[in-house]
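ok so i was messing around last nite and threw this chain in just to see what happens. nothing serious, just curious
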Amino acid sequence: MNPCLEEAERLLRLARRDRLACATLIALPELASSVACFHAQQAAEKALKALMTLHGVEFRRTHDLEELAARLEHAGQTLPVSEPDLIRLTPYAVEFRYNDDAMPLIDPADALSLADTLIAWCDTQIKTRRPSE
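result:
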């Protein structure tokens, strides 16, 4: 099998794991919404990196969703989510992780929806690359 495809599939599995964590945490009102949004950000980041790996787009270690999206767009990919939504989700990766009273930039349900959209987009592209069985 293609090593880039294998790595993209691995990253997509990790994105789904973070997506599940986000969905689970949304149901726990005693937790700050930033905890669920952290996992949505991680899911989105891993889905973007999966696509970058699939298409041979290099990336540095970063949590900046806008930067990752720009690199994909430069490589000819049209993202199914808006840049402002990515900008609102990015701070949950680092800045808000250690802040118990973070200003809400995005509703957790909207963050989950954004992650779902990116995961589905990534999954569709990976499926087109899998060899026929």
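not much to say yet. The chain has one domain: 3-129.
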